[in-house]
Design brief:
The protein has 121 residues and is an alpha/beta fold. The protein has one domain. 40% of the residues lie in helices and 13% in strands. It has a four-stranded parallel β-sheet. Helix 1 links the parallel strand 2 and strand 3. The two termini are 21 Å apart. The relative contact order is 0.27.
């Protein structure tokens, strides 16, 4: 998944590429079965990931995506999340930032909501 403003999205299980720039894991949990050295993660931005409660909410019933997205936007407005998002925006001004996730389908996960948030100054 390509995204504007210097951000790209890839699955963390994909092989790292020199074009990835700064590789940032944006999942709350470390990906199963993946050794940290193989992941080639430069940063782990837990502060911008959905809370465990919210993550479970979506996992239980994917049809509640719109409610999930609204609640996730509220979490992203918290000071710690906004500080981490500001850091990622700053990184993207100077480098490509590849957001890494373990989810099978990033298009129907928290990632589009996060990208929307990162594109809003």
């Amino acid at each position: 998944m390509a995204a504007p403003n210097g951000f790209h999205v890839r699955r963390v299980y994909d092989q790292a590429s020199p074009d990835d720039g700064v590789r940032v894991l944006v999942d709350r949990l470390w990906p199963r079965g993946l050794a940290k050295d193989r992941a080639a993660v430069d940063e782990w931005a837990k502060e911008v990931t959905p809370s465990d409660e919210l993550r479970r909410f979506l996992h239980k019933d994917a049809s509640r995506y719109e409610e999930f997205a609204a609640r996730y936007r509220e979490e992203l407005a918290a000071p710690a999340a906004e500080e981490a998002a500001a850091h990622l925006r700053e990184e993207a001004r100077d480098h490509t930032v590849t957001l890494l996730t373990a989810v099978k389908n990033p298009d129907t996960s928290h990632v589009p909501v996060l990208l929307e948030h990162l594109q809003t100054p």
